Amino acid sequence: MVTLKRKKILFSGLAILCLAGLSLVYTNLLKSDSSVKRVSIQACVIVFTDTEGLINDSDLVVVASPLDAFEDREPVLSNYSSGDLMSFHTNTKIKISKVLKNNTDLDLKESSIMTIVEPIAVSTNALGEKEILAIEDYKEMEANKEYLMFIQGTLPGIYGLNNLNNGKFELTSSIDAAKSSQEETDPVHVQLKHDLFSKYGLIASQTD
């Protein structure tokens, strides 16, 4: 869950993100494929750029696939009595194919289904227009694609994706998508993916 309050955002109870403005800083106003405006909230957030830090800070490491298309997932938004946005996230159901680390009391195995939190949500602005709110250009995971995911338990029974875009790594992608993906052109993401796939014996594949 992303919580906005007094110029700060708390994502899933994991890290405090400091806003650079009075409430929200809107950057990179983009048009998605569905013509819904994408609003990136700029923030300073504690992130991991090394494999050891990311693994140690995560309660779960799994290979899994989101079950539903982004537009069919459950966005959760809360507002203060003034009407200002207080918090947002999206509940994403995933189906697990491999459990690589489990420091929780959850009995997870192949084919287990669980819900995790992504730092993104579809909202409606003051003009009645739909828009996608995301922390630091976070890109939602795509349905039925396999990802290596790093997950951290936050509040009891709530598990959030750790480390924003660098807490999920695609196992399969199209060649064109890989070339255009923001994550795949980020040198930190690319190096983390290489090191993590090597550690866990995973092989990335590409389709035409």
Radius of gyration: 17 Å
Number of DSSP helices? 3
Give me the oligomer status.
Answer: single chain
Q: How far from one another are the termini? A: 36 Å
Instruction: List the uncertain runs.
Output: 3-33
Structural class computed from helices and strand pairing? mainly beta
Major beta sheet, specifics? 11 strands, antiparallel
Question: How confident overall, as mean pLDDT?
Answer: 82
The coarse overall form would be globular
Order of H and E elements: EEEEEEHEEEEEEEEEEHHE
In total, the number of strands is: 17
Strand content: 35-45%
Main features:
208 residues; 4-stranded mixed beta sheet; single chain; 3 helices; 45% strand; globular; mainly beta; disordered N terminus; 13% helix; 11-stranded antiparallel beta sheet
What's this entry about, in short?
The protein has helices spanning about 50-55, 175-180, 185-200; strands at about 1-5, 10, 15-20, 25-30, 35-40, 45, 60-65, 75-80, 85-100, 115-120, 120-125, 130-135, 145-155, 160, 170, 170-175, 205. With about 210 residues, the protein is mostly beta strands.
Task: Give an overview in words.
It is a single chain. The protein is mainly beta and 208 residues long. The chain has three helices and 17 strands. The chain has helices at 51-57, 175-180, 187-200, and strands spanning 2-5, 8-11, 15-19, 26-31, 37-41, 43-44, 60-66, 74-79, 85-102, 113-118, 120-124, 130-135, 147-153, 159-161, 168-170, 172-174, 205-207. The strands form three sheets. Strands 1, 2, 3, 6, 7, 8, 9, 10, 13, 14 and 15 form an eleven-stranded antiparallel β-sheet that branches. The protein has a four-stranded mixed β-sheet with strand order 4-5-12-11, with no helix packed on it. β8 (74-79) and β9 form a beta hairpin.
